[in-house]
Every structure is written in C-alpha cells, then in structure tokens.
C-alpha cells in the first residue's frame, strides 16, 4: 500500500514538473543567463521548490555547450543518452524531505515516469539543481556531446609575388586563426615563410587578414634572366647573389569552409635586400680617370603591392 | 546579410577608396659608402712646406642615375694612398680637400669638405681625411664633373711619387611610382 502511494506521488510530481517546465524556461531567459538553463530534472520530486529557489538559475557546470558553437558547419550530433547515473544517497535537507523523498530505485522503476528528454530535442535541458535543493535524481541525465571540432592541421600551396611558390604546413588552433610555415622557391633560390591568417567568418565565403614574413637565401639570378630574356650570353655580377626578406600584409577572400579552402590575397609587401657586387658593374663603366666603387654593399627597401593565390587542404581533425 | 557582413563591406569599400592614394612601388636605397677614385695622380715637387694638386673626376656617368633621383649624398671621408715613389705619408701635417664644380655657369661655391690639421694620422702609405662639413653632394655630382683641389702642409720631400685619391660619400635615393 505504501509502495503504491509512493508510485502515485511520483506520477503526480512528474506531471507537475512537465507543467512547470515552460515556466522555468521563461524564468531562466528572464534572468538573462543564456547558458544557465534551469530546466528541472523531470523526475525530481522537488520541482516546485526548484522553481521557487533563487539558486535554480545558477550556472551549472554540466550545462552543455550548444553544438556548432565554434562556427563549424558540423551538424549537431545527437547526444547519446547516457545510462542513469548512480545517484549518491541523498541527504535530506529537512526531515520532511527525508520522509517524502522516494528512494531512487523506486522512482526509476515507476512506470509513469516519462523518458528523459534528449539533447537534440531540448539542448538546454541541463540539470541545474542547487545543492541545497538537490533532490534525489531518479531519472537519467543527459550529457551533450563535445562540439565538433573543425579540422586543425593541413597543407597549403600558393603562388604569388614576392612569395614565389610555397608549400606550407597549416595549423589551426582555433577555427578563425590559421598559422602556417613552409618552404618557398622563386626560380632563383630556396626560401621559407611563416605567417598567420585570420578568417573571422565560418561561411562559405569569408574575408581574411593575413600577415607573413619570408626570406630567400642568396642565389644566382642570371639563369632566370637568361631564360626570360632569351639572351644566352647575359651575365651580371650584381645578379650573382640575389636574396631578400619580405613581409606581407594582405586582405583576401576565401572560398570554402571545412576541408578545402581556396583563397586570393592582395595587399602590400615590404621587401628588403642587399645589392652585392655593385662595384663590379660600376668599375666596368669607369673611365681611366674616374672609378666608382661601393666599399659597402647598398641596401634596398621596396614597398609595393603584392598578391597571392592558393588553397588549403585540411588533413585531420 | 548580417550586421557583421555589412560592417565588413563598408570597411572594404573604405579601404578600396584609399587605395588610389597609395603608391604602386616605393623604392628606397641606402648607400653606406660610395667612393669616387682617381688613380695614379702624379706628384713631382722639390722639398717644400706646402703642395697643391688638382684633378677632375670627369666621368660621373656611373652615379648619374642616382643623381637624377630624389637622392641625398653627403661627404664622409677622403683617402690618399701612395702607390709609388715614397714610403709613407708621415711628413704631412695638414690636408685640405676642396670640391668645386667645373661648370662655370653653376653658382656652386668651392667647399672645403675634408680637412685635417695637426690631427692627421697617416697609416703607413695611407691617410684618411674626415669630412669637415655636412653638405649635400648631389648638386656637385649633377654637373657632370667634379674638380678636386688638394693641399698638403708639412715637410714635403723632394720626390716624384704617385697616389690614389678616394672621395667617399654616403646617401640614400628614393623612387616612387603612383597610379
């Protein structure tokens, strides 16, 4: 008889909880606590006291993050419903609570107890019981899945000026920031480049801001000039050693979102270099009575427009 | 279209509007030291207390391109190196190097740009003379030729000897291409 009464009481409490849920949701939003939902445990026998408690809307560390919060286009994966946790033996706040509090095992076995809501249906339905009102949790709790992480490592290839052709390793610590480092070639010598790109939007089209720094070691540019000009006899001592450092500040557009990104960047570059063997050129032009020598190599700074086109392929999450 | 996209579009339009004011190419070159060298200046003198020699750098084509640009050059030092005839320059007490233009139509005055007196420090067969004033050399170089007057004070030996003269400058040049 006593057991029957308990089942009936539990069913009543469940119905009351269902009725109170919209009110609690409204109260939570009115309290302007976006990530502190206060949906009560559906099977909590103290649902009404939860609603009245000022602590009911307190942020709960177990509140799940909304799926896709990081801007990724990952669909909200349905959270698996975890089996009912082993509720610790509740310590009643008051003797009356202690008397009326049903045993968890009894409630779990009540046929009237509705199934726990899933996260997909009610993502904010996190338990938010304050410790002082924590009644025995008789139903299963739900745990949201971790947000789907965007791919964070990949490879990048691009072509432009003054960068030349570059192959880079890409690391994306967070979705909107992409750091890269790689090796370059400008048809004269090998170089290296590092940089960072900020893509603030997670849409299919996103603007970008990029900063890069690169270096090319000294190389012989005469073969390149001969190939371009067609003059097989061309030779210049100044071109025997050509190398430079550069820094880019680019704005750009990126197409693509997740695993593949195509981009066009344009902006300004600052190129610095040292001109070697300039005296060899001026000495050849010198007359018998006058010669011009550069006892120290001149340095050149060039500020100019620049552009680059390339793509990124992400390889792993 | 979201508010963020609208703001970014406006920012992009503003940036594009400012682009015509930016140069396409802006080049600046720094020249730590460039020297005009007059080789094998011959000196033949009796034993005297003062000696003057003059010569002209008459081919400045190698620096004409620099002189045409927005450049600045300043005199930094001159160097005298004995190549034959005497062992060293220890007899020199003072050196004055005067630069002037060979163009009679130019209003450029003669300038004593390198000078040492009493503090000259010959190093064997070489003597470095520091700049006596900071002056832009570009106007003198644009004339096409440059006259140098050397004046040595000291116990000049009776000898015939040759020396190389370096007149050195430093400077910078810039060039801009705008749309």
Tell me about this structure.
The complex is a heterodimer of chains A (317) and B (179). Chain A is an alpha+beta fold and 317 residues long. Chain A has 2 domains: 2-133, no CATH class; 153-316, Porin (Beta Barrel). Helices cover 19% and strands 33% of the residues of chain A. Chain A is built from 6 helices and 9 strands. An 8-stranded antiparallel β-barrel of chain A has the order 1-2-3-4-5-6-7-9. The longest helix of chain A is centred in the first third of the chain and has 29 residues, at 2-30. By secondary structure, chain B is of the alpha+beta class. Chain B has a single domain, classed as Jelly Rolls (Sandwich), CATH 2.60.120. Chain B is 16% helix and 55% strand. Chain B contains 3 helices and 8 strands; from the N terminus they run αββαββββαββ. A 4-stranded antiparallel β-sheet of chain B has the order 1-8-3-6. Chain B starts with a helix and ends with a strand. The interface between A and B is medium-sized, with 28 and 34 residues.
CATH architecture of chain B: Sandwich
CA-CA gap between termini of chain B? 34 Å
- Summed up, the domain count of chain A is 2
Alpha-beta content class of chain A: alpha+beta
Strand order in space, largest sheet of chain A: 1-2-3-4-5-6-7-9
Question: What is the CATH topology assignment of chain B?
Answer: Jelly Rolls
Largest interface: A-B, 28 and 34 residues
How much helix is in the residues of chain A? 10-25%
CATH topology of the largest domain in chain A: Porin
Strand count of chain B: 8
CATH second-level architecture of the largest domain in chain A: Beta Barrel
